[in-house]
Amino acid sequence: MLVKDMITPLDDNIKPTKDTVDYALILTSAVHDMKNSLCLLLQSIESMSADINTAPDKNKQAAKLADLHYEVLRLNSSLIQVLSLYRDEKDQLPINIAECFIADYFTEFCIKNQMYSDSNNIEINVNIDPDLAWYCDHNLISYLLSDVFINALRYSKGKILVTANLVNKQLVIEIADNGDGYPDSMLQAQHNSMAELSSKQGRTGLGLYFARLIANAHVVKAKTGVISLRNGGKLGGGIFTLTLP
Predict the structure, then answer these.
(1) Averaged over 155-161, what is the pLDDT?
(2) Model's pTM, two decimal places?
(3) Phi and psi angles of residue 157, each rounded to the nearest 5 degrees, phi first
């Protein structure tokens, strides 16, 4: 064998520290979520069409429109995740660090999802100092938090609590709901690689892997951003935590 044909640990094409990503599994997970959303979209559209013909009350129409809007947001979130993961695999996922005001994220999310939260009587409390700012990638953190916020709306039973505080010189953001909490399988798999995540449960591992990818991309003085899932807290449901250095 010629020396030039030999592969060494220094080969530019080898990335030993990078998590091995099975894109067939990623696409399967994405399609799983998008298929469910599209199914609900079709059902809502068909139901709306039938209701319009029979002149239903305005509240009923508003509720169905809210569900339709919510599923469109979920579908959009899944597409963003797939695109971002693809860019990361190709080392084309840019990280643009700038000062960001944390409360502004959730002001935007509340406005975008107001139709759904009003329709389902969901009380959203955002307990964040409006002057609290942090250096991070605005777009990536927005994608991450938006996806978590949308899922909290879906699984909530009427209450969501959002907090952000400085702990040990790090930013800690928590999104909690009063739903049934994260399933045990998801709690156990929260630190798994993408190849180990499963799409058998209603909540696929795509969003979880996506969140961890973005958090890990934020590194300051050897400290890396992390995510964690747990159940309990003041509302008794699921709690998603993002910690940024």
Answers:
(1) 95
(2) 0.69
(3) -110, 25
